[in-house]
Amino acid sequence: MDLKGRDFLKLLDFTPEEITYLLDLAAELKDKKKKGIPVDDLRGKNVALIFEKTSTRTRCAFEVAAHDLGMGTTYLDPTGSQIGKKESIADTARVLSGMFEGIEYRGFGQEIVEELAKYAKVPVWNGLTNEFHPTQMLADLLTIREHFGYLKDIRLTYMGDARYNMGNSLMVACAKMGMHFTACTTPEYFPAKELVDQCKEIAAQTGGSVTLTDDVTAGTKGADVIYTDVWVSMGEPDEVWTERIKALSPYRVNRTVMDNAGPQAIFMHCLPAFHDLKTKIGAHIGERFGITEMEVTDEVFESEQSLVFEEAENRMHTIKAVMAATIA
DSSP strand E in the chain: where? Predict the structure, then answer.
């Protein structure tokens, strides 16, 4: 499998076989790291990390993965680059291509990372856009496969706002890998019909399925994976908290949901999570709305069924695989 020079922008661009190859490579690199076997074949190369939206896991995963591979990194935060301000995206891509062997972008519209890739002469990797989060998907798929031993026919239910990057990406990932995806939320928060139809076509070829429901009992019954995300995404105004809490409180992941899924079910979350009041935002929302938990209860988050920290670690191993596979 040769992915040298390929961009990694969304899983829709990759075949199930290519995705499996990246997962296998990630598993191999993870095993070698655990055994202390260095894989620093990319010594002397460098990558640029553009972060218009800050992140703990994505930044750390890219930096540690690049270091493990022998590469240097340059981190450009929201104030550290003129991308889209004084310098066009196309010009930025061409400038960075002369200095780096790869470019990561985390920010806003998918069209930005797509334009970067169009003009860059080196691989471009999507660290998150409003529409897709493909590096998170590889980490999620690896975590599920590690736990169950396989991916095909796994039943994954996503609860919450499924209109944006996580709902979209999980639906695509499940369709590609022959899994059964359910978006369990209020109909106003279902993924876009065009993408749903596209994923249903893909699932028809792989043996998977796509289901949309607002019924929590039906939507979580027998699920192998219960997945959720924060109700208000980074960059959204505070005013939307009122709307989201009212609409999504029935879709909070709690013990009843996990019991309905069954003892085999695991809980996943891309993090950060508002499962208590130990953050500034959590404390503020708790005081404002009189709640102590949002998308997931602390009981579930801290339970043995929760694999959120294994999932977080796998961000690094899978991102390492993407860079190792695509840098020429």
Answer: 46-51, 72-76, 102-106, 124-128, 155-159, 180-184, 209-213, 225-228, 266-269
Q: Which contiguous run of DSSP H or E holds residue 96?
A: helix 89-97
First-to-final CA distance of the chain:
13
| Catalytic member of 145, 229, 252, 275 | 229
Biggest distance spanned by C-alpha atoms of the chain: 54
Distance of CA 124 to the CA centre of its chain: 16
Question: Is 13 among the catalytic positions?
Answer: no
Identity of residue 67 = H
Of 53, 64, 24, 15, residue with least CA distance to 205: 15
Torsion angle in degrees (nearest 10) through CA of 247, 250, 255, 258: -90
* Residue 315 a catalytic site member: yes
pLDDT in tens, 243-280: 999 999 999 999 999 999 999 999 999 999 999 999 99
163 is catalytic: no
Half-sphere exposure for 127 (CA within 13 Å, toward CB) = 27
Among 6, 59, 106, 180, the active-site one is 106
Has this prediction a pTM greater than 0.90? yes
Cβ-based neighbours of 309, under 8 Å, separated by 6 or more = none
